[in-house]
# Entry
Amino acid sequence: MEISKKLFFIGSGNMASAIISGLLESKLVKPENIICNDVIVEKVENLQKKYGISVAEDKGEAIIEADIIFLSVKPQNMPKVFDEIRRFIKNKAIIISITAGITTRFIEDSIQKDIAVIRAMPNTPALVCSGATALCKGKFVSDDQLQKAKSLFASIGKAEILEEKNFDIVTSLSGSGPAYIFYFCELMQEAAEKLGLDKNIAKIFAVQTVYGAGKMLDITNESAQALKEKVKSPNGTTEAALKYFESQKLQDIVYEAMNQAMKRSKALSK
# Structure
């Protein structure tokens, strides 16, 4: 299903770029219906060359035409952006914020209009249409608008509607999570090289292992714990590695790392 609405992205960083790429890859939106703006001109120019979208030098003019406005700017820049765009936003527009830590209430109060505000927490695998996005609605959002937003993000992966109180946890899980997986893959590759494997071969096997394990989790619908036990055999190589992880308290390390990410997300909302 193609969306004919005009989409305007304020901020064109990695996450916005991933969403744009995913939307175009899924053919949900045509390039001519996407407009971007960013303080770093090179970013939007690169997106224009790559995807054939439009670039807006004037935020006000683009917002007047926009049906859906994506906010993808740093939290500390939000007040300035609201001052620039407030008077141009039409009442029927939908604002979708993908800025970490910024609540729907904060946006509603800043815009000073009874306008639909949806908060989204996507992640970078949206770039390959495999994202995970959490959504919640502000007080002026209809169920129909929320479902349409869910459909939009579902076109670039999986999307779920949650209560806003859970967003800091989701940020620490799926928002930051891809970096955890990339880091672990990097460490496995480096370990294999130190143990004597060729660099290119180590990369191939590390990447394919992460990809295959993720695919098994998705397709088999079995729990991570169950699949882990299927790999492990008594007194085998896998058990030796897992026992070492346990002895080094990997579980505690992962918990505290996610706790730190969650705390940072909460701090950004203040």
Remarks:
- Strands lie at 7-10, 34-37, 54-55, 68-71, 94-97, 116-121, 131-137, 157-161.
